């Protein structure tokens, strides 16, 4: 049986920004916010189970978030999450 080989992978530098409502305008520019239908991140409300909703569900208790389409599927970011821009944007 052949022996395992070792490889060195160069570190990749990525940009990241923490999601907060005080920097929403900057986050929109950083993340390229638009419409999910166009393949862009979109502002949303977050349900208790962590999924995204277009409309508020429980009024004042709803948390705003960011729905982000990724290669792995739709991800929902909550306040204080770090949004990472990959090497391909």
Question: Would you give an account of this structure?
Answer:
- With 89 residues, the chain is mainly beta.
- It has one domain (15-85).
- 9% of the residues lie in helices and 33% in strands.
- It has one helix and six strands.
- The protein has one helix at residues 24-31; strands at residues 15-18, 42-46, 52-53, 63-70, 73-78, 82-85.
- A four-stranded antiparallel β-sheet has the order 3-2-4-5, with no helix packed on it.
- A hairpin with a 5-residue loop joins β2 (42-46) and β3.
- The mean pLDDT is 85.
Topology:
Blueprint (H helix, E strand, L loop, with lengths): L14 E4 L5 H8 L10 E5 L5 E2 L9 E8 L2 E6 L3 E4 L4
Helical segment tally?
A: 1
Structural class by SSE content: mainly beta
Determine the N-to-C terminus distance.
41 Å
Query: What share of residues are in beta strands?
Result: 25-35%
Domain count: 1
Mean pLDDT: 85
Strand order of the largest sheet: 3-2-4-5
Number of strands: 6
Give helix and strand order, one letter per element, not per position: EHEEEEE
Q: Name the helicity range.
A: under 10%
- Silhouette: elongated
Low-pLDDT sequence parts:
none
Q: What radius of gyration results from the CA coordinates?
A: 17 Å
Reported for the largest beta sheet, the result is:
4 strands, antiparallel
How do you describe this structure in short?
The protein is mainly β and 89 residues long. The protein has one domain.
Index terms:
single chain; 89 residues; mainly beta; four-stranded antiparallel beta sheet; two-stranded antiparallel ribbon; 1 helix; 6 strands; 33% strand; elongated
